[in-house]
TrEMBL record:
It comes from Methylobacterium gossipiicola. Keywords: Endonuclease, Hydrolase, Nuclease. This is Very-short-patch-repair endonuclease. It comes from the Bacteria. GO terms for molecular function: endonuclease activity. The keyword Signal does not apply. PANTHER family: BLL0828 PROTEIN (PTHR38590). Residues 2-106 form the DUF559 domain. The keyword Hydrolase applies.
Length: 113
């Protein structure tokens, strides 16, 4: 079983919440994939048409080591031609509509490049 398949089968609560708002082209018709491979990483969500990656970050992403790892991960994903935006679990819990609006705005900016 691939790492992407395993991650799709065991989403975090925040990932599951966001996926309910993105799946089936629910974000104004934009298609997203979840747990999609990009270079050597598996990203949380990717809109291939807009070359946009959405990463969901929990509390463990705040340590200095995690921040360095996330920066390297972002560098590699951006080198593959994607823009990376990060959303945190608290924003997903408290403001899902705002997170969806932020993602939609990023998709629309990427679509016009």
């Amino acid at each position: 079983m691939s790492r992407a398949t395993l991650l799709r089968r065991t989403p975090t609560g925040a990932e599951a919440t966001l996926w309910r708002g993105l799946r089936g082209s629910r974000l104004n018709g934009w298609k997203f994939r979840r747990q999609h491979p990009v270079d050597r990483y598996v990203v949380d969500f990717a809109c291939l048409k807009a070359k946009l990656v959405v990463e969901v970050d929990g509390a463990t992403h705040g340590s200095p080591a995690a921040l360095r790892h996330d920066a390297e991960r972002t560098r590699v994903i951006e080198a593959a031609g994607f823009q990376v935006i990060r959303v945190n679990n608290i924003d997903l819990r408290d403001n899902l509509d705002g997170v969806r609006e932020t993602i939609l705005a990023a998709v629309l900016r990427r679509d016009h490049l």
